[in-house]
Design brief:
heterodimer; A: 195 residues; mainly alpha; 10 helices; 68% helix; B: 249 residues; alpha+beta; 8-stranded antiparallel sheet; 7 helices; 8 strands; elongated
Chain lengths: 195, 249
Amino acid sequence: MQVGSEAAEGLADTDLVAQLAAGSQEALGQLYDRYGRLAYSVAYRVLGDSGRAEDVVQEAFLKMWNHASNFDARRGSLRTWLLTSVRNRSIDYLRGRGAHERQELELKPALAEVAPRSDPWREVSLSLERSAVREAMDNLPAEQRQAVELAYFAGYSHREIADMTRVPLSTVKGRMRLALEKLSSYLQGGGLIDA
Amino acid sequence: MPEHDELESLVAGWVLGALEPGEVAGVRAHVEACPICLDTALRLRRVVGALPLEVKDVIPPAALRERILAAAAASRGPMPALVLPKTRTKQYRPSARATNLAGRTRRWVPAYAAAASVVLSLVVGLVAGDVIGRQAPAPTAVVRSALVGHQGLASARANVIDLKNDGVALVDFSGLPQLDSGRVYEIWLITAGGRADPAGVFVPDTNGSKFVLVGRSLAGYAQMAVTTEVGPDGTLAPTQQPELYGSLV
């Protein structure tokens, strides 16, 4: 048993997903051990409530468990998929909307496959990645960082952000674009995402 | 190309999920047709995928892992194979309860006022036990299971707290759709052989939640399931296959 657990510990995410599809609860436990804390941190950051954060994380892991056979690594890493799911469900809770009202961000599969086939994160440890992302965010001008955070972690639309911050809509659009472009340059420069 | 410029200015908002609902379809269609905007969208989407890494670490409750594994086990468990009656099922009638139930006392208690104090005292006991570690049932006397929704009840969940020493169980439902007038949710306890015994009826609160006390032991039952039945008393046997169910630990 010990040997099996150690072997599972070192498996790539894609291998664990294959085991999930075959019904391995051990694989689910391993993925929770790998990403559960981060997933909970994301949900808590959005919701600010431990009970609701637990519900969201449970729903996201169950979705992964029940749809493991549909996961396609060519469209992105498992971690990105899981954390995006946690963020989207958290925003749905926060904004009181159903999943059917969520904005459709998926591209046609054939276009989405243009995304890198490799897991861009596999070479670097999670803690280093997180430090790099925090540093990149810290380096943004305050108003650009605010625009990204209000949209991503609070679920506000660009129009709502313009109203809240009392700046023209075109300025908010510009801040979002500039912020993401700067983050892209920074993270690409550090080898954390593909160009 | 004013249209291109206008739509390109919305790509960052699109990958952040920050567009107005009426803007989304147009931007998506443009991105899929415009190589420049597609390249931008894919590049910025990779950045957005990294944003969750910025959050401060918060340690989840230790019980969450077990809860997820239990819910996963329940969701892959086989649907209870219920034997449905060929004719319309007789409804509960309180005045005829003894004969209709063939001597089987209706021991379930929906969460009405009479049961509220029992539920409250059990919950207080559990919480107090967790918090101050006194007067809590022995660890093996409290067993938790999960029910998972499917199909029309896909959004529904329930956590079952089986208080073995007390011979009762608490069921915490959430995410239940509202019922049509005159309908109720009915809880069934199912043996390994597929026999379904009624265990309570309830109507969820406006937010789709309900806390229900099942006033009988779960011993000898393999699964718990929920169907919608005619109200107010439910039926003696289920009239449909359940869409919310799970294995009992």
